[in-house]
Amino acid sequence: QVQLVESGGGSVQAGGSLRVSCAASGMTWCMGWFRQAPDKEREGVAGIDGDGSTWYAEAVKGRFTISRDTAKRTLSLQMNSLRPEDTAMYYCAAGGDCRRRDFRTWGQGTQVTVYS
Known about the structure:
By secondary structure, the protein is mainly beta.
């Protein structure tokens, strides 16, 4: 089973940028980023398939960019123009039912905090 380890979270002022990365023991066709804020349900942020096709949550379109490097076995999320409402634990996910975005494997998460 694929193992995922996130890194790159931190604290940043609103309007700033952060890049979170996920080191994978292996790459799967579909991979994605999810987030969960305190007292809220987990939500999908962005995903990318092996052919490079991507999807984004409406709340992050135009601000976040997902990418994958198969050779380095890395999934990344570049986050620009961050807002306080982007504060959450960010999780990397891989495998599972790609069409339904029902991922099978999850990382431990990395905290992103955006302060105003």
